[in-house]
Fold:
Amino acid sequence: MTSDGDALFRAICEHPREDTPRLVYADWLQENGLPERAEFIRLQCEAWALCPAYPTLTAARTRASDLLRAFGDRWYNELPFVPGLEWGDLFVRGFIDSARTVAMSDVGATLEGAFAAAPLRFLTVTELRRGQLRLLLTCPRLGQLTKLYLPGTSGDAEYHELEAASKRFPNTEIV
Structure:
């Protein structure tokens, strides 16, 4: 990808709730020889907004499904390997928007890699070791998430850290 494509992709990752960066990136993909991916992103954004350019919403969803069957494995395989992270398998508005951590050894590096590679809106964090919750909750990009799942966290100290994080990230549901 060129620096223009990289910059456009970073804008999507930094603003995962917005469609405009996705649609600008789709235009760039179209202009740079990747029309199927561009169309897929547009179709999913249109279906998400319930404002299809196709004759019916069903036609748009059918076409998006056809593109996903034909190219989905390639697009999924473009996601980088991030130690301690498993990518979700559902494309939403053209991109994977969820991930799950597994046995992170370096919380900062795992989160940086995850947020740089996909417009995450949902993150499940499991198997935290002592002290990792505090490191996790200092990541400013958590505010981009719609929901942060933290199964297995309990105790008074953790409760207070989660309560403080909920105030720092009011648009992110922490469960």
